[in-house]
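Open question from group meeting: does this chain pack into something compact, or does most of it stay loose? Before anyone orders reagents, we agreed to write out a predicted structure and look at it together. Recording both the input and the output here so the notebook holds the full record.
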Amino acid sequence: ASSMYVWEAGQLHLYQTFPETRGAHSLTHYKMGGMHWLFMANHFDDKGNGFGVPSVIYAYTWSDSANKNVFMPVQSVSTTGAVAASYWEHDGAHYLAIANYFN
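Structure tokens returned:
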């Protein structure tokens, strides 16, 4: 799992965990449609395998159970050892390029 921290009162405090991550290699934040998004590039699974390990896209939204805004998983993306991603917008279209280590 991966974690996110918030800076409050001069210290970092745990804000959220991401149990869906497996060997996360990088994190890409972007803003689209007025919302904040995260792409977590999963490089390998719990057994160290890098082939066919999905990465996850999260949207920053309200959670009743957490009683605050958190990044919620909204889509799993097929990746093979993802190591990085880059987001951009061009002519109103949104793109997310993902670099995979395998294949």
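Observations to bring back to the group:
Strands lie at 2-8, 11-18, 24-32, 35-42, 55-63, 68-77, 82-90, 93-100.
The longest strand covers residues 68-77.
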